[in-house]
Automatic annotation (TrEMBL):
GO function term, MF aspect, one: monoatomic cation transmembrane transporter activity
Chief subcellular location: membrane
Coiled-coil segments on the chain, per record: none
Compartment(s): Cell membrane
Organism of this sequence: Micromonospora narathiwatensis
Membrane topology recorded in Swiss-Prot or TrEMBL: Multi-pass membrane protein
InterPro entries the record matches: Cat_transpt (IPR003445)
Entry's transmembrane regions: 12-33, 72-97, 124-149, 190-210, 222-247, 295-328, 349-370, 406-428
Gene Ontology terms: biological process: metal ion transport
Cited Pfam families: TrkH
GO CC entries: plasma membrane
Protein's name in the database: Potassium uptake protein, TrkH family
Amino acid sequence: MVRRLLRRPVRLVPFGFLAAILFGTGLLMLPWATSEHRYTPFVTALFTATSAVSVTGLAVNDTPHYWNDFGLAMITVLTQLGGLGILTIAALVILAVSRQLGLRNRLLVQAETMEFGPADVRRLLTRIAATVFVAEAVMTAVVTARYWLSYGYPPGRALWFASFHSIQAFNNGGFTLYPDGLVAFSRDPWLMLPLSLGAIIGGLGFPALFEAVREWRRPHRWAIATKLTVWGSVTLLVLGFGALLFVEWNNPRTIGGFDPAGKVLASFSQIALTRTGGFDIIHVDRLAEESYPLLIVLMFIGGGSASTAGGIKVSTFFLLAFVIWAELRGEPDVTVGGRRVANASQRQALTVALLSVALVVAGTVVVIVLTEHVRYYAALFEVTSAFSTTGLTTGLTAELKAPGHYLLIGLMYIGRIGPLTLGSAIALNTRRRLYRYPEEQPIVG
């Protein structure tokens, strides 16, 4: 079975997620999944299941009121399956790639993935599963204690709310049990910091996470992908936090009325969860217009490769930044941390970025056409949120009609399986030629 998965990872990705989505859709359509015990319309169930499996968090209804405990439990299970499945499939893809390479390159790949080879599938997947469940258990324990001791929740209710939001945070799901997201708790560090940290860890990806933990004393020995992911994530977090704090500092509709510590915590948590988790820490529909471009860019970039986060990935974005910098300086090679980046990696990064931009732009145009009196940046925000599987919303998703919902469903699905499918297809489909055409340099610009 494992050999078959390793041989055809490109087929496994889309069909595996599609099967989970259809399974979840069928269960969510049942009357005992809703508070009013009525059958859920197909498009609503399909949207919710896709949002859960793709770990997005967008919803077409009021999640805590529309779904009963069974429905919410199904959303939790689908989110967990989606998050763990993403990590598992990513592991299989990397192992499959290593099998197709020569000995030298195979050793390089294994060095960048904690030296796991094709024979170590079980050990690798066990480590991934253990990391997921330990992280979620720690978050659940801290948040449960806070709900129980500080907010007076009964122990059972505190555990349910804590486990739901911890699973959503680590898997970057974005669903919440509150109509306004986590806005009411935006100044509570005992809730915000564990959930934000969980989302950050889940958004790094297991290759970067494992290597960073193993070589934490010697970061100079990290692989290029780990350096780009870790330092890139830190850079985006710091710059995004500073920019959002500056823009929203005096905005009375968001954090303007908070004390300085509350403003700092709310801004940090929102930025930490913007690229990955999708929780509303600040009312997104009340943000200053200057904040929307910032959040759109962060959502589009997303998190780390082989992580539960979406987007084009941090390593892709910063690799392109190094390519541009090298070109501006007239350097013959692109180097990162003393290592030369292969031309194939540069082309792959450019391909992923350009295809993603084209998809987001096309989706935005369609939403504008389908929706009357919609602001262009609201449409762009919603489409980017769906494609990057973030889950933040200005409220437009709930206002869309069925065609718009189907569009977002497609974007969430493509945004989730697209990078894995495209990346593995490129890596496993290297064509060999016995000849090369003469080189010519066309005029650019």
